[in-house]
Amino acid sequence: MSKEFNVAIAGATGAVGIEMIKTLENRNFPVKNLRLLASKRSAGKTMTFKGTEITIEELTEDSFKDIDIALFSAGSDISKKFRKAVVDAGAVMIDNSSAFRMEDDVPLIVPEVNPEDVKLHNGVIANPNCSTIIMLVAVAPLHKAKKLKRLVAATYQATSGAGAKGMAELEMQTRQLLNEEAISPEAFAHRIGFNLIPHIDSFYDNGYTKEELKMLFETRKMLHDDNLQVSCTCVRVPIMRAHSEALNLEFENEVTPEEARKILAGAPGVIVVDDPAKLEYPMPIDATNQDDILVGRIRQDISRNDKCGLDIFVSGDQVLKGAALNAVQIAELL
After folding, report:
1. Greatest CA separation found in the chain?
2. Which CATH number fits domain 132-318: 3.20.110.10, 1.10.760.10, 1.25.40.10, 3.30.360.10?
3. Active-site residue numbers?
C-alpha cells in the first residue's frame, strides 16, 4: 500500500487555497488527513474535499502537529511567522509567497525545470513567482538544448495575481463602466476595467518593479546561471486568471523555429499551439483551467544577423500552474 500523508493548507479560503484543495483531489494526491487553516474569522466554516465536509481551523503555532506537508498561501508575513512552527513539528513547508525564495538553503522549484533541487531543502521549499513559473516551463527546455544567454519579457498578467479581490474588482468595474457608473479602484493603483497598468508590486530606484526583478533573480536561481541577462516589463491586464508573456530569447547556439517546436513538443507541461494559418496561438481564454502552458507564435528574431534568437508567446493559468498546481507537484516530488 502506498504511503499517505497528513496535509495542511494555510490560507485555505483564498483563491489559491481553494485551488489547492481542488488540485489535491483532481490529482488524487495520497491524503490521509487534510487540515484546513485560515484566519480566526473563517474558523468554524466548512469546505468540501472528496465529498467530505472539513471544518476550517484557526491557524496557530500548534496547527502542524502530525502534519507531513504544509502548503502555504497566506502571504509572506504569515509564512515568516509560522516557518519555525512548521519545521519544528517535522513538516515540510511548501510556500507560495515571496518570503523565502532567494534564501540559499530554500530550494525554488518548478518540477518540470529543476526537480533535482528539491532534495536540498531544510524544511522549506519555495514556489516561484507565477510569471516566472509560466515562463520557465516553456523556456527551460530550450535553455537545456541551446543555452539561453539573454531574455526580454513583456507580461500580460491577469487580475487573479492580486487574489480573489483582484478578480472581483475587474468584474465589478466592467459592470460599472458598461453602466456608466463611478469607479473607485481598491485592489489596483488605477482602474483595471478596459485598461492596462504597467505596474505590479513596488518600484525600485532603478525604475524596475519588485515583480520584474523577481523574474530576473528567480530565473537565475532555478537555471543555476548567475550571468543570465533578464529584463522584464510586467503589466496588469483586464483578464481573469491566465497570464500571458511575450518573450524574446537569445541563445549561445543557433536554433530554428522548427527545432524549437520539436523541443517544446517533447517537453513536460507544455502544449504547442502554433499554426497562424489556422489562427491558432496561445490565448488566456484557452489557458484558463488548463494544467499545461500554451506556447506559440514561435518565430526567428529578424532583428538579428544570426539564427540565435527566437520570439515566442506563452499563456498559463496563474491560479493553477502559477500557484496551486505547482505547489502540489512539489508535494508529489517529495
Report:
1. 64
2. 3.30.360.10
3. 130, 243
